[in-house]
Amino acid sequence: xxxxxxxxxxxxxxxxxxxxxxxxxxxxxxxxxxxxxxxxxxxxxxxxxxxxxxxxxxxxxxxxxxxxxxxxxxxxxxxxxxxxxxxxxxxxxxxxxxxxxxxxxxxxxxxxxxxxxxxxxxxxxxxxxxxxxxxxxxxxxxxxxxxxxxxxxxxxxxxxxxxxxxxxxxxxxxxxxxxxxxxxxxxxxxxxxxxxxxxxxxxxxxxxxxxxx
Length: 213
Hints:
Layout lengths: L5 H17 L9 E5 L6 E3 L15 E3 L5 E3 L8 H10 L5 E5 L2 H8 L9 H6 L5 E2 L7 H10 L5 E4 L3 E6 L2 H23 L9 H10 L3
Parallel strand pairs: 6-7
Antiparallel strand pairs: 1-2, 1-5, 2-3, 3-4, 5-8, 7-8
Protein backbone atom coordinates (compact mmCIF):
# COMPACT_ATOMS: atom_id res chain seq x y z
CA UNK A 1 0.00 0.00 0.00
CA UNK A 2 1.27 3.47 -0.91
CA UNK A 3 1.03 6.16 1.77
CA UNK A 4 1.25 9.92 1.47
CA UNK A 5 4.53 11.60 2.27
CA UNK A 6 4.70 13.87 5.29
CA UNK A 7 4.71 16.94 3.05
CA UNK A 8 1.60 15.69 1.26
CA UNK A 9 -0.09 15.04 4.60
CA UNK A 10 0.63 18.55 5.84
CA UNK A 11 -0.71 20.08 2.64
CA UNK A 12 -3.90 18.01 2.90
CA UNK A 13 -4.45 18.98 6.53
CA UNK A 14 -4.26 22.71 5.88
CA UNK A 15 -6.63 22.26 2.93
CA UNK A 16 -9.09 20.48 5.23
CA UNK A 17 -9.08 23.48 7.56
CA UNK A 18 -9.80 25.82 4.65
CA UNK A 19 -12.65 23.65 3.44
CA UNK A 20 -14.22 23.30 6.86
CA UNK A 21 -14.03 27.07 7.41
CA UNK A 22 -15.49 27.83 3.97
CA UNK A 23 -18.42 25.51 4.72
CA UNK A 24 -19.13 27.27 8.00
CA UNK A 25 -18.26 24.23 10.07
CA UNK A 26 -15.72 26.08 12.21
CA UNK A 27 -14.51 29.57 13.04
CA UNK A 28 -11.08 30.83 12.07
CA UNK A 29 -9.44 29.77 15.32
CA UNK A 30 -11.78 26.89 16.13
CA UNK A 31 -11.46 23.32 14.95
CA UNK A 32 -8.46 21.06 14.47
CA UNK A 33 -7.36 18.07 12.47
CA UNK A 34 -4.64 15.46 12.76
CA UNK A 35 -3.20 12.56 10.83
CA UNK A 36 -1.26 9.61 12.19
CA UNK A 37 1.48 8.51 9.87
CA UNK A 38 0.57 4.87 9.16
CA UNK A 39 2.42 2.21 11.15
CA UNK A 40 3.98 4.83 13.44
CA UNK A 41 3.15 6.66 16.67
CA UNK A 42 3.78 10.04 15.06
CA UNK A 43 0.92 12.47 14.52
CA UNK A 44 0.78 15.67 12.49
CA UNK A 45 -1.71 18.10 14.03
CA UNK A 46 -2.79 21.70 13.54
CA UNK A 47 -1.33 24.27 15.96
CA UNK A 48 -3.10 26.12 18.74
CA UNK A 49 -4.19 29.74 18.36
CA UNK A 50 -3.41 30.30 14.67
CA UNK A 51 -6.01 31.37 12.09
CA UNK A 52 -6.78 28.04 10.46
CA UNK A 53 -7.77 29.16 6.92
CA UNK A 54 -4.33 30.76 6.50
CA UNK A 55 -2.14 27.94 7.77
CA UNK A 56 1.05 27.00 5.97
CA UNK A 57 2.61 23.52 5.99
CA UNK A 58 5.43 24.70 8.26
CA UNK A 59 2.86 25.79 10.87
CA UNK A 60 1.83 22.19 11.60
CA UNK A 61 3.43 20.31 14.46
CA UNK A 62 4.30 16.67 15.00
CA UNK A 63 3.61 14.98 18.33
CA UNK A 64 3.75 11.45 19.70
CA UNK A 65 0.87 9.60 21.35
CA UNK A 66 1.74 11.17 24.70
CA UNK A 67 1.48 14.68 23.32
CA UNK A 68 5.23 15.32 23.29
CA UNK A 69 6.38 17.77 20.63
CA UNK A 70 8.57 16.07 18.02
CA UNK A 71 8.70 18.73 15.33
CA UNK A 72 7.47 22.29 14.82
CA UNK A 73 7.63 25.67 16.55
CA UNK A 74 4.05 26.08 17.77
CA UNK A 75 2.05 24.37 20.48
CA UNK A 76 -0.22 21.57 19.23
CA UNK A 77 -3.96 22.13 19.28
CA UNK A 78 -5.26 22.24 22.84
CA UNK A 79 -7.52 19.32 21.88
CA UNK A 80 -4.58 17.01 21.23
CA UNK A 81 -5.76 14.70 24.08
CA UNK A 82 -8.83 13.82 21.98
CA UNK A 83 -6.71 12.90 18.99
CA UNK A 84 -4.14 10.74 20.76
CA UNK A 85 -6.75 9.00 22.91
CA UNK A 86 -8.59 7.92 19.77
CA UNK A 87 -5.41 6.76 18.03
CA UNK A 88 -4.48 4.65 21.04
CA UNK A 89 -7.83 2.85 20.99
CA UNK A 90 -8.55 2.72 17.27
CA UNK A 91 -5.70 1.25 15.28
CA UNK A 92 -7.91 1.48 12.19
CA UNK A 93 -8.08 5.29 12.44
CA UNK A 94 -5.46 7.56 10.89
CA UNK A 95 -7.33 10.88 10.82
CA UNK A 96 -9.29 12.77 13.49
CA UNK A 97 -11.22 15.95 12.70
CA UNK A 98 -12.84 18.29 15.22
CA UNK A 99 -15.20 21.08 14.14
CA UNK A 100 -18.10 23.11 15.51
CA UNK A 101 -20.90 22.33 13.02
CA UNK A 102 -23.75 24.69 13.99
CA UNK A 103 -26.74 22.54 13.04
CA UNK A 104 -25.40 19.30 14.48
CA UNK A 105 -24.29 21.06 17.67
CA UNK A 106 -27.54 23.00 17.90
CA UNK A 107 -29.67 19.87 17.68
CA UNK A 108 -27.71 18.37 20.56
CA UNK A 109 -28.39 21.50 22.61
CA UNK A 110 -32.09 21.12 21.80
CA UNK A 111 -32.05 17.52 22.95
CA UNK A 112 -32.70 16.13 19.47
CA UNK A 113 -31.14 12.72 18.93
CA UNK A 114 -29.14 12.27 15.74
CA UNK A 115 -30.82 9.87 13.35
CA UNK A 116 -29.35 8.73 10.00
CA UNK A 117 -32.19 9.98 7.78
CA UNK A 118 -30.23 10.05 4.51
CA UNK A 119 -28.72 7.18 2.55
CA UNK A 120 -25.17 8.48 3.05
CA UNK A 121 -25.71 8.95 6.78
CA UNK A 122 -27.21 5.49 7.15
CA UNK A 123 -24.25 3.92 5.39
CA UNK A 124 -21.39 5.97 6.80
CA UNK A 125 -22.44 7.56 10.09
CA UNK A 126 -25.28 5.39 11.44
CA UNK A 127 -24.85 6.53 15.04
CA UNK A 128 -23.46 9.59 16.80
CA UNK A 129 -23.10 9.18 20.58
CA UNK A 130 -23.11 12.35 22.70
CA UNK A 131 -20.43 13.14 25.28
CA UNK A 132 -21.68 15.44 28.08
CA UNK A 133 -19.82 18.72 28.52
CA UNK A 134 -16.28 18.25 29.80
CA UNK A 135 -13.74 21.06 29.97
CA UNK A 136 -11.94 21.37 26.59
CA UNK A 137 -8.31 20.35 26.29
CA UNK A 138 -8.39 17.87 29.17
CA UNK A 139 -7.35 14.24 29.17
CA UNK A 140 -10.74 13.51 30.72
CA UNK A 141 -12.46 14.80 27.59
CA UNK A 142 -10.06 12.88 25.38
CA UNK A 143 -10.78 9.60 27.14
CA UNK A 144 -14.54 10.19 27.08
CA UNK A 145 -14.51 10.91 23.35
CA UNK A 146 -12.29 7.92 22.60
CA UNK A 147 -14.61 5.64 24.57
CA UNK A 148 -17.65 6.98 22.71
CA UNK A 149 -15.85 6.56 19.38
CA UNK A 150 -15.58 2.80 19.74
CA UNK A 151 -17.74 1.53 16.90
CA UNK A 152 -18.61 4.97 15.53
CA UNK A 153 -17.14 7.45 13.04
CA UNK A 154 -18.84 10.40 14.74
CA UNK A 155 -19.00 11.70 18.31
CA UNK A 156 -21.03 14.76 19.33
CA UNK A 157 -19.79 16.98 22.16
CA UNK A 158 -22.40 18.74 24.30
CA UNK A 159 -22.05 22.56 24.10
CA UNK A 160 -18.95 22.10 21.98
CA UNK A 161 -19.04 20.48 18.55
CA UNK A 162 -18.30 17.20 16.83
CA UNK A 163 -15.44 14.80 16.20
CA UNK A 164 -15.21 12.57 13.15
CA UNK A 165 -12.62 9.95 12.32
CA UNK A 166 -11.54 7.87 9.41
CA UNK A 167 -9.00 5.49 7.98
CA UNK A 168 -7.84 8.42 5.89
CA UNK A 169 -8.38 12.18 5.73
CA UNK A 170 -11.19 12.00 3.20
CA UNK A 171 -13.25 9.59 5.27
CA UNK A 172 -13.11 11.87 8.32
CA UNK A 173 -14.00 14.94 6.24
CA UNK A 174 -16.87 13.17 4.51
CA UNK A 175 -18.30 12.03 7.84
CA UNK A 176 -18.31 15.64 9.10
CA UNK A 177 -20.03 16.86 5.94
CA UNK A 178 -22.66 14.12 6.10
CA UNK A 179 -23.30 14.79 9.78
CA UNK A 180 -24.03 18.47 9.18
CA UNK A 181 -26.10 17.81 6.05
CA UNK A 182 -28.24 15.34 7.98
CA UNK A 183 -28.60 17.81 10.86
CA UNK A 184 -29.79 20.54 8.47
CA UNK A 185 -32.44 18.23 7.01
CA UNK A 186 -33.57 17.27 10.50
CA UNK A 187 -33.80 20.96 11.43
CA UNK A 188 -35.96 21.71 8.37
CA UNK A 189 -38.30 18.83 9.16
CA UNK A 190 -38.58 19.96 12.79
CA UNK A 191 -39.36 23.52 11.66
CA UNK A 192 -42.19 22.10 9.54
CA UNK A 193 -43.54 20.38 12.62
CA UNK A 194 -42.94 16.84 11.42
CA UNK A 195 -40.72 13.97 12.48
CA UNK A 196 -38.13 13.09 9.83
CA UNK A 197 -38.93 9.85 8.02
CA UNK A 198 -36.19 7.29 8.59
CA UNK A 199 -34.92 4.63 6.21
CA UNK A 200 -36.12 1.21 7.43
CA UNK A 201 -33.39 -0.74 9.21
CA UNK A 202 -33.85 -3.75 6.93
CA UNK A 203 -33.11 -1.56 3.90
CA UNK A 204 -30.04 -0.12 5.58
CA UNK A 205 -28.68 -3.60 6.23
CA UNK A 206 -29.28 -4.61 2.61
CA UNK A 207 -27.53 -1.48 1.37
CA UNK A 208 -24.56 -2.12 3.65
CA UNK A 209 -24.24 -5.62 2.24
CA UNK A 210 -24.57 -4.28 -1.29
CA UNK A 211 -21.83 -1.70 -0.77
CA UNK A 212 -19.84 -4.06 1.48
CA UNK A 213 -19.79 -1.63 4.39
